[in-house]
């Protein structure tokens, strides 16, 4: 196999999983290490797996990292659409008649633009907030990657009100160090929705860029309450939350 032309070796090795290439194949010989480090090999893997876009050619400085980020990319928020009850969520505030899960579109509500979303979380007349803490290393994002490449971190959330009741929505996302020190923070002004509104679902999004080195956790919290203090579940509705990391 050592006598194979370089382009053939690239083609063969590009069929292997990235972890095998880096942890095993790279250690076989000087030649294999050279081939595994070739831009053409990682570009070929991107082509094989549908990550390659021709007009990105000039903007990608490291195709190996680009492949790794594409391969890892997924929603890091678990149970974003209430399909698993409150599993994976920490209920930080659970006042009034507490958090509840309802089926789309719900009383005096409207369907989500995404037909795959069937449920949502709904708040009550007391403050209701829930959160998730994402450990980046557990999700496959190693420290050197986060510190040197600092890929974009994209946060999205969807919220809506009932037609017949006013409510308040809040979102807070923090990038935390190993010691839980806040390195970057997204906390927009609370959204207050008046009674007799259109009940439409709206998306809020934010992209963290050029954040400090040392990010090890992402903390996501959202929630709110109704503004008319009605017993039951007349507060803000949330669903389809997401956090994705670059490229």
What would you say this structure looks like, in words?
One of its GO terms (cellular component) is SCF ubiquitin ligase complex. This is F-box only protein 6. One of its GO terms (biological process) is SCF-dependent proteasomal ubiquitin-dependent protein catabolic process. Residues 66-247 form the FBA domain. By secondary structure, this protein is of the alpha+beta class. It folds into 2 domains: 6-72, Monooxygenase (Up-down Bundle); 90-246, Galactose-binding domain-like (Jelly Rolls). The protein contains 6 helices and 11 strands. Strands 1, 4, 6, 7, 8 and 10 form a 6-stranded antiparallel beta sheet that branches. A 5-stranded antiparallel beta sheet has the order 2-3-11-5-9, with no helix packed on it. The model has no long low-confidence stretch (mean pLDDT 94).
The domain tally reads 2
Quantity of strands, as a count: 11
The first-level CATH class of the largest domain is given as Mainly Beta
Percent range of helical residues: 10-25%
Mean of the pLDDT scores? 94
Can you tell me the residue ranges where pLDDT is under 50 for at least 5 consecutive residues?
A: none
Please give the largest β-sheet: 6 strands, antiparallel
Keywords: Ubl conjugation pathway
InterPro entries: F-box-assoc_dom, F-box-like_dom_sf, F-box_dom, F-box_only, Galactose-bd-like_sf
Organism: Pygoscelis adeliae (Adelie penguin)
GO molecular function, one term: ubiquitin protein ligase activity
């Amino acid at each position: 196999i050592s006598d194979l032309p370089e382009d053939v070796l690239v083609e063969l090795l590009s069929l292997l999983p990235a972890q095998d290439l880096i942890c095993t194949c790279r250690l076989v010989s000087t030649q294999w290490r050279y081939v595994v480090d070739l831009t053409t090999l990682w570009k070929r893997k991107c082509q094989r797996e549908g990550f390659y876009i021709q007009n990105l050619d000039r903007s990608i400085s490291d195709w190996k990292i680009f492949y790794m980020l594409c391969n890892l990319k997924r929603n890091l928020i678990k149970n974003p659409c209430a399909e698993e009850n409150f599993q994976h969520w920490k209920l930080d505030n659970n006042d009034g008649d507490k958090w509840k899960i309802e089926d789309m579109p719900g009383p005096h509500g409207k369907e989500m633009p995404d037909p795959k979303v069937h449920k949502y979380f709904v708040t009550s007349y007391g403050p209701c907030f829930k959160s998730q803490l994402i450990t980046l290393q557990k999700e496959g994002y190693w420290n050197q990657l986060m510190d040197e490449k600092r890929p974009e971190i994209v946060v999205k959330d969807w919220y809506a009100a009932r037609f017949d009741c006013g409510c308040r929505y809040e979102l807070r996302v923090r990038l935390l160090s190993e010691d839980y020190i806040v390195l970057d923070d997204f906390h927009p002004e609370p959204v207050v929705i008046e009674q007799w509104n259109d009940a439409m679902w709206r998306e809020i999004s934010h992209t963290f860029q050029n954040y400090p080195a040392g990010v090890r956790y992402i903390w996501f919290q959202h929630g709110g309450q109704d503004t008319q203090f009605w017993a039951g579940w007349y507060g803000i509705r949330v669903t389809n939350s997401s956090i994705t990391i670059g490229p």
